[in-house]
Amino acid sequence: MAAEPAERRPYHREDLRRDLLLAAHAHVRAHGHHGLSVRTLAQAVGVSPGAPYHHFRDRRELLLAIALEGYARLGEAAVRATSDTASPAENLLELCLSFIAFAQANPRLLELMYESELTSPAPDPALLHHQQAGRHALQAQLEAARPTLSEQERTLRLLSLWSTVYGFASLRNKHLIDPFEPSGSSPDQIARSTLRLAVEAALRQPTDALAP
Fold first, then answer.
1. DSSP, residue by residue, 25-90
2. Which residue from 207, 197, 94, 196 is spatially nearest to 149, judged by alpha carbons?
3. Model's pTM, two decimal places?
4. Which of 26, 43, 56, 160 could form a disulfide with 61 if both were Cys (CB 3.0 to 4.6 A apart)?
5. Per-residue pLDDT tens for 144-156?
6. For the chain, how big is the Rg over CA atoms in Å?
7. For residue 192, what are the domain limits?
């Protein structure tokens, strides 16, 4: 008897959605998100072209699921980075460094999370929720270290700090700062020193702030 056409073969695995996401993560890790489609994902998993649509309505919903898992991992890394026994300044630095480590380990996933169709012209609301959670984690440590800051000053300091963290991660992933990094230091040392300067600036005493 001839084999039944692939598009008609039933799928018997326990968790197709999980298999699809694992394959999608592997594709993004190796190639980025631009060439990923529901059809190519079905081929990678070995199911009919229509099978993934039982779990993802379209490519955007698939990409969103991948990005959300990335944010979940990033959030877990942030939790591990902080300690009740550390000072707010130490926790703030470690939070920043945890983002740098995640960015370096997952450059193509980071692009999907922050610089893709999911974030343009505005972030998807589901992503925005996670981005705000990251901001609140930084804000909690800043408020603990400098509780007398005005809301405006706190917001400006957070904006400056986050710009440094994300800018450093992005520039390093694109190898745009490689020629300018000081020799004789490891990448980890350079990241720590750079982010320490940014944290120190964010935590300076209010009286040291530059006049508007």
1. HHHHHHH-STT--HHHHHHHHT--TTGGGGT-SSHHHHHHHHHHHHHHHHHHHHHHH--TTS-HHH
2. 207
3. 0.88
4. 56
5. 999 999 999 999 9
6. 21
7. 84-206
